[in-house]
Design goal:
202 residues; 9 helices; Rossmann fold; 5 strands; alpha/beta
Length: 202
């Protein structure tokens, strides 16, 4: 069975972004990650860095989350915080991009925006801490001494943002249709495992 969209959440240092980009290239489909932030930044006339700061500062309080989701669903944008405006704008942009056809979306709670569509939710993890640390240091130019703190910071940010906007735990693997371990499968193995999922337009 094939689907229109794949959404990918990933541990920092798992190679998830690389997997998504290479999968898109292999399948001849669009892939959106940073492009979502860039479009929202342009629309709201703010910097990508400012959006990233908003995402990092979001609260993971259940009461805050319930309030935010209710306001967003009601379309009452005036009652939303800065973080809420960012989330709503990202969700709108994801839906706009999805209208162009089958695609792969990286992060940004894309599965929430596409929950009424034909989507497969994927989580990429890396069970080998040494492999993960090496990838973070090499791919992102992070000082090896800072790798653990940077990884914890990004994973915490992703977990808080995901929970605040879905009321689900980012790290709970039951929330995903497919979970892949890049340490065992490798980047190519993960790409090959996901080929054939996206709907063929031909």
């Amino acid at each position: 069975m094939s689907f229109q969209y794949i959404t990918i959440e990933r541990e920092y240092g798992s190679g998830g972004t690389n997997i998504a980009r290479r999968l898109a290239e292999a399948c001849g489909k669009a892939c959106y990650g940073e492009e979502i932030l860039e479009a929202v930044a342009q629309k709201l006339d703010i910097s990508v860095e400012q959006i990233q700061r908003y995402e990092e500062s979001v609260s993971n309080s259940f009461l805050y989350t319930a309030f935010m989701m209710r306001r967003a669903q009601e379309g009452n944008a005036d009652m939303l915080s800065g973080e809420g405006h960012i989330f709503v704008a990202e969700q709108q942009q994801i839906k706009h991009l999805a209208a162009s056809g089958p695609a792969i979306f990286i992060g940004h709670c894309a599965s929430e925006a596409l929950r009424d569509r034909s989507v497969v939710k994927v989580f990429i993890r890396c069970s080998d801490s040494e492999q993960k640390a090496k990838r973070i240091a090499e791919d992102y130019g992070i000082d090896p001494k800072r790798v653990d703190s940077v990884r914890n910071r990004y994973d915490s940010k992703r977990a808080k943002y995901y929970y605040a906007n879905t009321t689900q735990k980012w790290e709970d693997l039951k929330n995903y249709d497919i979970v892949l371990d890049s340490a065992k499968l490798g980047i190519d193995g993960c790409v090959n495992a996901l080929k054939g999922i996206l709907q063929d337009d031909n």
